[in-house]
Write a structure and sequence with these properties.
Rossmann fold; Rna Polymerase Sigma Factor, Chain: A; 3 domains; 7-stranded parallel sheet; 4-stranded mixed sheet; 15% strand; globular; binds NADPH dihydro-nicotinamide-adenine-dinucleotide phosphate; binds magnesium ion
Length: 379
């Protein structure tokens, strides 16, 4: 049995990871973490009997301790508790499924113990890609992508990176594909939270609607596959069946296909280089019958172009892009800013941000706070 830790175990990716554990029966859960969902964490403790868990919310940790006093599970708290769960000696693989930049520190803790990282938390590479990669090299920690597009690219490259010419990253287009900026100003949180193909956490669902998610994924891909943004072409593919493609120097294009179900890339990241039993229904191309492709409408959805600019600017600019987005999405979900303001606020924060070369973790944290402050001021 491979031993795993799941950070963010109560979320969309976290619970689907535990579904993969149930289906494959190939993994033993060593540690878990969540923020405040005590009820779900209690049931996960009773089912998987992990050695340790951590809740970042102190009050939730206190409550959980009382609830599971009859089990053998140790309950830790705060970000230090999550880092301890991430670095636990017994786990071979750590699934990083915390949402937002909050996932960065625990991911670095897991890396410092040379663990395999099954990386779902894209904000980790977006905000601190260079530092994370350097650390992974230093501690010999493998990073295997969980994000469906990056899993597809990873599988399609299949150790032939020296022949790689271009990446074609697919995007569902989200619930507002084909809509113009005027329509988008009236989008409510309820409308944005209805994704056509994927059932995900609230933040990434809004990111998919603004196309910030594709922007984050392009930045993530530059780090994972050592490729410049100009060699990554985003293409809208409404059906989310082709999860991404790569073009090699001879003109061959290789793609990975599958039903839109995150259990597939999660299972692959856990089993790599092996493959496991089926974790989802098989792909039926005749039933799907049509696959469609379109260019991104950069006028209505400026998020991708802004992300490319942030990647080219380098330094802390991607952390600014991410921090402004996290803060703006939070405000949008509370009804405190308009849908279209999300990308406007990102742009404003990027315009005002200082240019910093060779950014340290402290510079990145400062840039994140700076971007959040701009959003607060402008909203
Ligand atoms: P969810 O919002 O569903 O889950 C987030 C998890 O992180 C929960 O366990 C939550 O705990 C925990 N959490 C929230 N805030 C904090 C914090 N400040 N510190 C520590 N833990 C925290 O998110 P998703 O599962 O949708 O996404 C997780 C990551 O995976 C994101 O980076 C996303 O971009 C990426 N991803 C997600 C995909 C998907 O299909 N969902 C697809 C590809 C990538 P609690 O429940 O207690 O609040
Ligand atoms: Mg994705």
């Amino acid at each position: 049995m491979k031993k795993i830790s799941v950070l963010g175990s109560t979320g969309s990716i976290g619970t689907q990871t535990l579904d993969v554990v149930d289906i494959t029966k190939e993994y033993q859960v060593e540690t878990l973490s969540a923020h405040s969902n005590v009820a779900l964490m209690e049931s996960q403790i009773r089912k998987y009997a992990p050695k340790k868990v951590s809740m970042t919310d102190e009050r939730a940790a206190k409550d959980l301790k009382v609830r599971v006093a009859d089990t053998g599970t140790l309950v830790l708290s705060g970000i230090d508790g999550v880092c301890e769960c991430a670095a636990d000696n017994d786990a071979d693989t750590v699934v990083t499924a915390i949402v937002g930049i909050a996932g960065l520190k625990p991911t670095l803790s897991a890396i410092s113990k040379g663990k395999r990282i099954a990386l779902a938390n894209k904000e980790t590479l977006v905000t601190a890609g260079e530092i994370v990669k350097k650390s992974a090299k230093e501690y010999n920690a493998e990073i295997i992508p969980v994000d469906s597009e990056h899993s597809a690219i990873f599988q399609s490259i299949s150790n032939q990176e020296k022949f790689l010419k271009k990446i074609i990253i697919t995007a569902s287009g989200g619930p507002f594909f084909g809509k113009d900026r005027i329509f988008l100003t009236a989008v409510t949180p309820e409308m944005a939270l209805k994704h056509p193909n994927w059932n995900m956490g609230a933040k990434i669902t809004v990111d998919s609607a603004t196309l910030v998610n594709k922007g984050l994924e392009i930045i993530e891909a530059t780090h994972l596959f050592d490729i410049g943004v100009d060699y990554i072409q985003p293409v809208v593919h409404r059906e989310s069946i082709i999860h991404s493609l790569v073009e090699f120097c001879d003109g061959s294009v290789i793609a990975q296909l599958g039903v839109p179900d995150m259990k597939l890339p999660i299972s692959y990241a856990l089993s790599y280089p092996e493959r496991s039993v089926p974790v989802t229904k098989p792909l039926d191309l005749v039933e799907i019958s049509n696959l469609s492709f379109y260019n991104i409408d950069n006028e209505a959805f400026p998020a991708v172009e802004l992300a490319k600019k942030a990647a080219k600017d380098g330094g802390v600019m991607c952390a600014v892009y991410n921090g402004a987005n996290e803060a703006a999405v939070e405000k949008f979900l509370k009804g405190e800013c308009k849908f279209t303001q999300i990308t406007e606020l990102i742009e404003k924060a990027m315009q005002k941000a200082p240019r910093i070369e060779n950014a340290t973790l402290e510079d990145i944290a400062d840039a994140d706070s700076f971007a959040r402050e701009i959003v607060k001021e402008c909203c």
